């Protein structure tokens, strides 16, 4: 098991990870999610003893990584697949790692086979594609047949077959009772691979819960209702009946209705009472991607200037408020779509607040390259001695998870000393040239 307690990492003025506490249990795939720059890699480096926490601690099986006896056989990691000597072949690279860790050479050929690189084992790795490099990094992680595995974006650059292979590999490793901690930005993939999720935003814990709970806490379940074709008056009648009963009803583009705030049996009864024949009444759940986007909107640091969204809050839509896409307001929530008395399971949490005027993202300075295998014994970065000023990320309005550590309010950074504003310079009137009445000659 991996256990982090109050883990904090500062790089100069930048707080990459703040007061992070979580556990990664064996026998499950735990997904590690968060927007770009939210501190996932930093956390993984601290778990592997490659970065020293500024505060807090993290252990594997009860010991800090550096105190683990024979760490490479206990822990395997893929952090940066490109951190390979390009002049070495895949086999040579793995062989050197194996020799450093006392792992028998035959294991090298085994893992080359597992990752499907046996036919290019003698090729220099500098000629490898992104996906081949990724496979080599995974081979390095598996080399010591470890009980604890960390993968930082393992499917990066893999083709669909490779992605499926990684998914099955992760699931198999977890089924064997190993601890599998994997970060990814591919939500659809995480939904299929992970059992449990740890979500961070701006270095702080946002959620620690099962994938299923994460989706239902952070998205609106809804019912799709379709009346018999060619009966617009029946549709209107049903809309009125459902709204009167406290449901939020939105028209869908194909003529169906999206209903939140009412359970399916109640919708069925109301349709029956209104004498409306239904052709469809089905439950729907939002995807992990929708739930993730909803939760992390306020913690996104890097957004395209072409992206007009100020969040996933959508404008009120139709006479009942709310918005298409499952993000209708929850029961009792003052905003579009809210309806008192709406039932659990058919409501969404309050929409996340748009990101506040947080500090601009700090530039990454002197980031240390990290090798692909955990058996690397890099000297730890000295913990920077910083004042305890921490820029506080604005928390999205997330539902606190069972077992999640509620983010502790971070101390406010004192305002940077400002130079006294200069008085505006008086503008000199521009001397006007006297008009001569002559025109410029046309260009030749
Ligand atoms: N060595 C370093 N020196 C200074 N700042 C750093 C260093 N390493 C990371 N950071 C900063 O810490 C923050 C967290 O970075 P980190 O790489 O952990 O995020 P991440 O969640 O892994 O991002 P991504 O999803 O883009 O890989 C970023 O703002 C980053 O610039």
Automatic annotation (TrEMBL):
Residues 328-444 are annotated as: Disordered. Residues 328-340 have a biased composition (Gly residues). It comes from the Bacteria. InterPro entries: AAA+_ATPase (IPR003593), ABC_transporter-like_ATP-bd (IPR003439), P-loop_NTPase (IPR027417). Residues 2-227 form the ABC transporter domain. One of its GO terms (molecular function) is ATP binding. Residues 347-360, 406-423 have a biased composition (Pro residues). Residues 424-444 have a biased composition (Basic residues). It holds the Pfam family ABC_tran. Residues 361-405 have a biased composition (Low complexity). Keywords: ATP-binding, Nucleotide-binding, Transport. Belongs to the ABC transporter superfamily. PANTHER family: ABC TRANSPORTER, ATP-BINDING PROTEIN. This is ABC transporter ATP-binding protein. It comes from Streptomyces pactum.
